[in-house]
Amino acid sequence: MPNHIFINKRIKSFNKKIKVGSDKSISIRSVLLASQAVGTSKISNLLESEDVLNALKIIKKLGINYKKKRNFYYIEGFGLNGFNIKKKTTINAGNSGTLARLILGLLVKSKFVVKLTGDESLSKRDFSRVIKPLKLFGVNIKSKNNSLPIEITGTKFLRPITYDENIGSAQVKSCIILSALNTPGTTIINSKISRNHTELMLKSLNYPIKVKKKVKVDKIFINGLKQFKSFEYNIPGDISSASFFIVLTLLSKKSQIIIEGVNVNKSRIGIIQILNKMGANIKLKNKKLYKGEEVADIHVKSITKLNSINCPSKLNSSAIDEFLIIFLVAAKAYGISKFKDLGEMNKKESKRLDLAIKFLRLIGIKVERFNNDINIHGNPKIMLSKNFEIMNFLKDHRIFFLSCIAALTLGGKWKINDKKSANTSFPQFLKILKFLGANIN
Ligand code: S3P
Fold first, then answer.
1. Same domain assignment for residues 73 and 202
2. How does residue 214 score in pLDDT terms, banded at 50, 70 and 90?
């Protein structure tokens, strides 16, 4: 099977209801927390993408059994630090920054050395952001240049810490929260708000975690050394996966879509706020609350006139994985869109800010860059006819998805490499595009 696709035609108008893949952040967290519960947890609609399958492989390697029956995963935990290893063990987080950062938080008491490895992309990423707090807890960490492979050996008694998480990274915050389950009295000063799924999941387990909202910062208090029981969790759809279909619909002619059952947690819906500010009319209907998480159906209609945006950087963290596709909307909007302070994009599966600029220039859009700020000069009449080839050297799933949506909405003849990267987060992506009528070879 070739690992590339060709798209030579724009998508025709469509009017459909779809479901996207389950939320990756919540899927990984549910597997990791189930591995620390007492008893058998039952998880339905777990995302079966590579990042999540790697989470399952890792807990298995660390001695936790699971089985799948129909739509359910049953994970048998033995409580906090219930991992069962008898010697130095190597685990592999594949492409997943979330899995790599969070699993370190669960190894803070390991008696044996655990060596954490990852794929080429993950091995290029910076781990100093989690190594620093882990060392403050008293955990032993060995790594060259703060990158993978990392060897971690736990400590018997963790020092409770007070830590200012000022990057706005949910991965860092969650690594600290998971470590803090093993010690009494950790405080996280959350001076840049990030997605809060770990906090909500622990709260739904009645764990003593408190979030106090202050004027500028949130403060999170975790009173660790308490045990939680096994649980059930039904994973909602992923807004990051939905985002590609939201933009496909907006930029296609006379189309509409309903995306059912998507997690619309406030800390994740930056894309909807940004696109609505640009003139879209995206609606959230049938809202429900599930274990503290908001879930809704997303209704989108295509739009003929999009305005540029001066994007408030306070929305950055709630749209961090969606900027690639938001930039495509900016490329079609009237006027110059401005985005600021997007350095974090370059710390993802690939250097996404650099690649986004390259991509926009490739399709003929003028982009100005000032460090981590960019101005995109929109061209509402943009219509492509040339040949394009997208290489995707670091196999970044979101670069693959972006390229497909650009090809299906702007025209041109596209060869898009590394189709397999879709399996990282959204294996059903191409199938859903075909269901909407896309012509993909
Ligand atoms: C994630 C947090 C984000 C995001 C990533 C998933 C998570 O990373 O980019 O895809 O599940 O916690 P940062 O928190 O490091 O920004």
1. yes
2. confident
The reply to whether ligand 1 has any atom less than 6 angstroms from the CB of 49 is no
Indicate whether 63 and 89 sit together in one domain.
yes
Buried b (16+ CB within 10 A) or exposed e, 352-365: bbebbbebbeebeb
Given 174, 190, 224, the domain boundary residue is 224
Comparing C-alpha atoms, which of 396, 383, 391 is closest to residue 426? 396
User: Which residue's alpha carbon is at the smallest distance from atom 5 of ligand 1?
Assistant: 98
Query: How many structural domains is the chain composed of?
Result: 2
Question: Among residues 165, 194, 224, which one ends one of the domains?
Answer: 224
Are 57 and 83 in the same domain?
yes
Res. 191: pLDDT tops 90: no
Structure tokens at 372: 């981590």
Is 440 domain-assigned? Answer: no
Which residues lie closer than 8 Å to 204 by C-beta, 6 or more apart? 231, 291, 292
From the CA of 62, how far away is ligand 1's center (Å)? 24
Indicate which residues carry an active-site annotation.
Answer: 321
Pocket test for ligand 1, best of 103, 169, 268 (most atoms within 8 A of CB): 169
Whether residues 71 and 14 fall in one domain: no
Q: Is the CB of 357 under 6 A from ligand 1?
A: no
**Phi, psi dihedral angles at 331 (to 5 degrees):** -65, -25
Q: Say yes or no: CB of residue 98 within 6 Å of ligand 1.
A: yes
Give the position, in ligand 1's atom list, of the atom nearest the Cα of 198: 12
Average pLDDT (74-82) is 97
**Residue 25 beta carbon below 6 angstroms from any ligand 1 atom:** yes
Q: What is the pLDDT of residues 274-332, one digit of tens each?
A: 999 999 999 999 999 999 999 999 999 999 999 999 999 999 999 999 999 999 999 99
Report which residue type is found at 175.
C
Q: What's the 415 CA to ligand 1 centre distance in angstroms? A: 29
Mean pLDDT along residues 144-170: 96
- Distance CA(100)–CA(88), nearest Å, equals 17
> Do residue 17 and residue 161 come from a single domain?
no
Q: Are 147 and 101 in contact (CB under 8 A)?
A: no
Instruction: Return the residue matching tokens 């975790």.
Output: 222
How far does the centroid of ligand 1 lie from the alpha carbon of residue 168, in Å? Answer: 9
Is 386:373 a contact under the CB 8 Å cutoff? Answer: no
User: The domain that contains 192 carries what CATH number?
Assistant: 3.65.10.10
Task: Give pLDDT, residue 302.
Answer: 97
Together in a domain, 82 and 204: yes
Is residue 229 in a domain? no
Which residue range(s) make up the domain with 400? 4-21+236-435
